[in-house]
Amino acid sequence: MERLQKVIASSGLTSRRKAEELISAGKVRVNGQIIKELGTKVEFNDIIEVNGKTISKDIPKVYYLLNKPFGVITSTKDEKNRKTVIDLIPTSERIYPVGRLDYDTTGLLILTNDGELTNLLMHPKNNIPKTYLAKIKGVLTKDDIDRLKNGIIIDDRKVDTSNFKIKDKDFKEDTSLIEITIHEGRNHIVKKIFAYLNHPVLRLKRTKIAFLDLTDLPIGSYRKLKIKEIKKLYSLK
Question: Which of 46, 102, 160, 213 is catalytic?
Answer without folding.
Answer: 102
